[in-house]
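Summarise this fold before class:
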Amino acid sequence: MVTAVALAPRFGFPTTTPTPLWNDRPLPVAPAPVQAPNWVELAKQLKPAVVNINTKRVEEGMPQLQGPMGRDDQFQQFFKQYFGNQRRTVRSLGSGFIINPSGYVLTNNHVTDKATEIHVKLADGRELSATVVGRDPKTDLALLKVDATGLPVIPLGDSSGLQVGAPVMAIGNPFGLEQTVTTGIVSATGRVIGEGPYDDFIQTDASINPGNSGGPLINGQGQAIGVNTAIFSQSGGSVGIGFAIPVNVAKPVVTQLAQTGRVERGWLGVSIQPVTPELAKSFGLASAQGALVASVVDGSPAQKAGLKRGDVITEYNGRKVARSEELPRVVAETP
């Protein structure tokens, strides 16, 4: 016998369906108007312009020696007195990319820093000696020159409009593995990682490892929009957090390096700090934007312009200053 059983609502419990705590409605986002970049074709065309940089430098100094009972400065002095400072040759690998058919190669300064010999290996197998046209430690950029013409190049794009989530491709020589291509997206822009006064890094999850430094970060149009520079890793390998110098930071630096071999920057003469929401409220500002002047150097352009401690700079030379980190870069670009 089949019996149908109806359960009555328990006393005190509602009979209506409760409103869920979450919202499952899809976002009203229009589908992407274009397909994913043709990475296969872009890689074929761009890889010939990416180079392997091999450097040699000589380091002097005694290795840290220990006596039988552990660290002993007298033991160290004894060996230094009789054997002197030891010299050793250190070799390192990095990447770079050709930006001019006449042999100009853009890379990181730390790839070639203190190098006594620099060799650039082209995709066609040629290995050429390179000279340093100029270097800029503050942005970690260096411009090299090889004696060759008619070389393939990678065009420089515009990093100012780069959007988080945009697809990107990294090309380089991680661990000496030449012409390695990885892809990912832009994870963030404007990152400050403590590398220098002009930090403005692009963060990407495209795999970047030791040896990738100096290689290009490419957008979907086949243009370099960054110079791969650093990774965040506790193991030394890629964990999906890589950083690239925006190409818009590199362009004025490269121009000056090619012309004079060095970079000259504007100087304002202030120390600054961020405008926090609390400070913005105390100053009566509509939003927490700009750079708060903490001090002014005597005789500086800032003092001559009438800037005082406690002023908030929201615009410089016609350019908006939304964050305090932006002011040093804007001032530096002043002729």
